[in-house]
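Appendix C reproduces, verbatim, an entry submitted by the partner laboratory led by Prof. M.T., so that reviewers can inspect both the input and the predicted structure.
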Amino acid sequence: MCLTINLWPLRFENEIVLWGADQASHLIAIATFGLSPAGLAVVEEMALMVVAQNWMLYESAYEKKLVDALARRKERSVKALRYNLPPDRPTATAILQIQPRPVGLYVVPPSADRSYEEVLGALVASRPECLDVARSGRL
């Protein structure tokens, strides 16, 4: 068990650093567990998530700025969750519930390469019902 705990900073480095950078943020742990043959509870899988003061999940400082801006606007929006998608795969960060068509908001990391941009373009093209606001300016 000590070995696993010592590996947490490596596996969850991003979450721990983001949490430490903002005193108003919260670090949440979720886990699944089972019982060992000896009857002891054993964690099988675990994840850490950092959330803003308003309990909205974010994965980067850029997403944090977007989440904060959306909270200030007080308009209806949906925060997309990555779940099991790899961090280098584009996904909408949030969706503004604007009528008659929702608007997908994408945070493109500064490290994004041409391949990332191509995958993002294909993702946006596959959802014609959503408007693309990739690399949007101020909210």
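The CA atoms of residues 12 and 64 lie 17 Å apart. Additional entries are available on request from the coordinating office.
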